[in-house]
Write a structure and sequence with these properties.
This protein has helices at 19-40, 55-75, 80-83, 85-102, 122-138, 148-167, 171-176, 180-186, 191-209, 212-229, 235-261, 265-275, 284-297, 309-312, 324-356, 361-385, 403-420, and strands at 113-115, 118-120. The chain has 430 residues and is an all-alpha fold. The protein folds into two domains: 10-188 and 294-425, no CATH class; 196-262. It has a two-stranded antiparallel ribbon. Helix 2 packs parallel to helix 17 and helix 4 (85-102) runs antiparallel to helix 5 (122-138). The chain is globular and about 75 Å long. The chain starts with 18 loop residues before the first helix and ends in a 10-residue tail after the last helix. Residues 1-15 have low confidence and may be disordered.
């Protein structure tokens, strides 16, 4: 329960906000806006950064509206977000289903509501609402996370919106929901889940770069060596060895089947281009190659603001959105990239610190959800610009152009700052 000493109005005192996080947020948004202008700058037209006909001007409008959202979040009672979490969850599920019927196809995906001249993407807000719902459920005093029933319900809360988004053909946004596994691990999920996940990723990479026959031979040899090393060759131990070997072999076969029979050609190429950059050179391969060239050409200090040739001549598609890091790397070099990564890592570390000092489980779970969602976006976005992960099209938090992403990340972060500002008013929950 909450402290009875709460007095309306005292939550807006400036000293209660974590100003370190606020400054990091402001720095990221401002740096993003400047680099969006650099990404769309036309040296012949010489438009102003405030010109509403280009994306930097439009982004400034989104930034202004985000400030309005921040004001609303700080005015609303902090208990509002927990009280209405389940209602928000139902609403976002309806929106996710509705967008598939009401939206027009954009690059193969039906994921945006068009309102006037603006496009709103429900999947961006689904992450925030799923975080609220998961925190609300786990904060129930009757819920014990060590019970299988609880873990299955948590998995359902995460999986339902993710599967709907996947049905929209928005694979990137659906993958971000995997971030909640890290949140559940913090709450007591067995580490075997993470171990299996990492093992599956390693097997996936090996299945892509090594001939399957060689992998099957390697699995058989390792299983034989494991059998010979068994101290007690009981039937149970033998079955464990055989079962694990069979499971790995099935996973190797499954990778090939999934690549050839489930994925579409462009999705398959996005994965294969990591192994062979010459694949699909006119689309995905071209984008990754030009991205690497842009970042690499910046050198240590960069070519200077508005001086990036790769940026100026639009060699990298989507450079103001998913590939904004290319502009940063080319114009500001290794040092600019380091500053951006430093800002985001600093923000993540600060959020984790704040999450750990929360006095109730709802705020802590939600705080870790914020950190994990931002981390997955940050890691995948930068990873795909330098060719380490497939191109799946997700924005760099607070830097990429887009109203839905800026709004969703702003709401995600500032709701947590609101909760954190009340940590002294909340009694510890058992």
């Amino acid at each position: 329960m909450y402290s009875s000493e709460f007095r309306p109005g005292q939550d807006l005192r400036p000293g209660k906000l974590d100003w370190v996080t606020v400054l990091l947020y402001a720095a990221c948004v401002a740096a993003g806006w400047v680099n969006i202008y650099a990404a769309v700058y036309d040296p012949e037209a010489h438009p102003s950064m405030l010109d509403l006909t280009i994306n930097s001007g439009k982004q400034l409008v989104w930034i202004g509206s985000a400030l309005v959202l921040i004001t609303l979040i700080m005015v609303v009672d902090f208990k509002f977000f927990e009280a209405f979490a389940y209602i928000f969850y139902v609403i976002i599920l309806v929106a996710l289903v509705g967008v598939m019927f009401l939206a027009r196809d954009v690059n193969g995906a039906k994921a945006w509501f068009e309102i006037g001249g603006a496009r709103i993407q429900p999947s961006e807000f689904a992450k925030f609402i799923t975080a609220l719902t998961l925190a609300k459920y786990l904060s129930d005093t009757t819920v014990r996370f060590d019970e299988l029933r609880t873990q299955l319900i948590c998995a359902a809360i995460i999986a339902v919106p993710a599967l709907i988004i996947l049905k929209q053909n928005d694979t990137g946004s659906a993958m971000v929901f995997g971030a909640f596994i890290l949140v559940l691990y913090r709450e007591g999920l067995t580490p075997w889940v993470l171990i299996l996940g990492v093992s599956a990723a390693i097997i996936l990479v090996l299945a892509l770069v090594v001939t399957p026959l060689y992998l099957y031979i390697a699995i058989a040899v390792i299983a034989l060596l494991a059998f010979l090393q068994l101290r007690r060759k009981t039937l149970r131990n033998i079955l464990w060895v055989v079962g694990l070997a069979a499971l790995v072999a099935i996973m190797v076969y499954g990778v090939g089947f999934f690549m050839n029979n489930v994925l579409q050609a462009h999705q398959r190429n996005r994965i294969l281009v990591l192994v062979d950059p010459t694949i699909d050179q006119k689309q995905v391969g071209y984008q990754v190659l030009q991205s690497k060239i842009a970042i690499g050409s910046g050198g240590f200090w960069g070519k200077g603001f508005l001086s990036g040739t790769q940026t100026r001549f639009d060699f990298v598609p989507e450079q103001e959105t998913d590939f904004i890091f290319c502009t940063i790397g080319e114009e500001h070099g290794w040092m600019g990239g380091l500053v951006v990564i430093g800002l985001l890592v600093g923000l993540l570390c600060r959020i984790v610190y704040l999450a750990e000092r929360q006095r109730d489980r709802f705020s802590r779970v939600y705080g870790y959800s914020v950190a994990c969602i931002l981390f997955v976006h940050f890691a995948i976005n930068i990873g795909m610009t330098i060719g380490l992960v497939p191109v799946i099209g997700i924005p760099l938090p607070f830097f990429s152009y887009g109203g839905s992403s800026l709004w969703s990340f702003t709401i995600l972060l500032w709701v947590f700052l609101k909760l954190d500002s009340h940590r002294v008013e909340v009694l510890s929950r058992v």
